[in-house]
Design goal:
By secondary structure, this protein is α+β, with helices and mostly antiparallel strands. Helix content is 22%, strand content 36%. It contains 2 helices and 5 strands. Strands 1-2-3-5-4 form a 5-stranded antiparallel beta sheet, with helices on one face. The longest helix has 11 residues. The chain is globular and about 35 Å long. The protein starts with 7 loop residues before the first strand and ends in a 10-residue tail after the last helix.
Length: 97
């Protein structure tokens, strides 16, 4: 039986921010947080191809289930702002997700 190799991709928006999960069975997943490039107040990791979005947070997970759980834990723009304010850019306080 062949393993499902399709990539799952979901995005949800919270005000000016959006959260994205990409995952694939056998390889795990990643959660990304994006902010508009023109008003972003955080350090960015990378820009989107169109230059309109800055990736302000990225975390890799060893399983699809872990990545989806982290993605599901995001519930508001205020929650993300609070997390980013407490941990700065990728600090250890970001373990909340």
């Amino acid at each position: 039986m062949a393993e499902n190799s399709s990539i799952n991709h979901e995005t949800k928006a919270f005000g000016r921010l959006k959260v994205e999960v990409q995952s694939q069975q056998g390889t795990g997943g990643q959660v990304l947080i994006w902010a508009p490039a023109d008003t972003n107040q955080y350090n960015s990791i990378v820009k989107s191809d169109d230059g309109l979005w800055d990736c302000i947070f990225a975390r890799l997970y060893s399983s699809v289930e872990e990545a989806n759980k982290a993605y599901d834990n995001f519930s508001s723009e205020e929650q993300i702002d609070s997390m980013m304010s407490r941990c700065g850019f990728g600090g250890s306080a970001c373990q909340m997700i």
